[in-house]
Amino acid sequence: RPADLELMKHRIAGISNVTPTTGLNLPGGVRSGDNTSGAQVIATTGWFQFANQSYPRLGRLGTDSDNDSRRRVVVLGEKARADLKLPADPLGTFIQVGGQWFKVVGLMEERGEMFGQSMDNYVVIPFETRRALSGPNNEPDMSILLTVDNIDAVHDVTTRITALLRRAHKIGPGDPDDFQV
What we know:
Blueprint: H1 2-11, E1 15-24, E2 30-32, E3 35-37, E4 40-44, H2 48-51, E5 56-59, H3 64-68, E6 73-76, H4 78-83, E7 94-97, E8 100-108, E9 113-114, E10 117-118, E11 122-126, H5 127-134, E12 143-148, H6 154-168
Parallel strand pairs: 4-11, 6-8
Antiparallel strand pairs: 1-4, 1-12, 2-3, 2-7, 5-8, 6-11, 7-8, 9-10
Helix pairs in contact: 1-6
């Protein structure tokens, strides 16, 4: 829930780079002219690059301003760029995501394959833009990525996040969590 994101940002010490992330499956997929891509659409914020340790090779990731104003900007993974047959430097071109036009503002560093799956078959759009596209009554299931500032504090931070979310969700003693940490 978006409220959980705000709680974690402001109530949990020892963490940074807190960002929401969610997938998106819009009719029409990702396309440029007649070329299509089976890219995963990820909606997040600019903090994604730090929390995920994945950075743009060209251009930039979405900014807080892009997110707040729900701009239609997109950052491409290398496989998505290749599938769409865009130039090596695609900055400034426009593609369609779910039938909506988005301006390419970045190209991510290539990550290669893992277990035969491309780690570059994705596009990134601002989190609030995704919420605007899916409508006010369709809150996405979301994950929250973050960095624990001191690796030795992972267990303590996990315990504090769990306690905070249980209180916020009004989960009684002995009742199961409705979230995962």
